[in-house]
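Each record in this resource describes a single protein on a pair of labelled lines. With that in mind, the following record should read easily:

===
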Amino acid sequence: MNRMKEGLYPLEAQERAELLSDYEQHFDMGLSEGKSEKEIAVELGNPEDLIKEALGDRYFQDRKLFPQGRVHDEELISYNKSPQGSPSIPKGTSSHRTTPRFFRATGLVFLNLLLALPIIATIWALWISFAGISVSGILAPGLAILDFIIVHKQVVLPELFVSLVFFGIGILVGIFALRLMKRLGRWTAGYFKWNQTVLKRKDN
């Protein structure tokens, strides 16, 4: 991250802060998933390549001005004020980067509201139905026993048999619901992660 902060100095403050925030969020997400900082750094790629991609032509101009690759505050201030520094930081760069990101965000909002979220909500509603069937079947023998004690005062064999059948069905449906929940959880998390990836994608 220190190398990224040094290498992105030619960018405007707001654009530089956005990029660094994206990288920091990537680190936070990786750490929350149990990855090491080294693994996350490998996923991001070589810092020099990331800097080169973010700066474009300015990367080579700035390397000529500061060949050692490290920039001190005094050098940065003088660079921004110098005639060489001003043209190499186009004012339109920030808006150029912001516009595609805005359209991507808008597209994702409509995609999620009109298609993805209703489908995801419907699938999870079906899972809740399966879970409810499972719970009802598992509780059936207990409810039958209460019925025998409170109402009939004796065991009713047909009712007991039916409750045991529902109990077996509830167990089977419960096993299916647990497996389905794991897959739905992965799919849902993967979809929202894809949303984040699309929003963070760098523009050429």
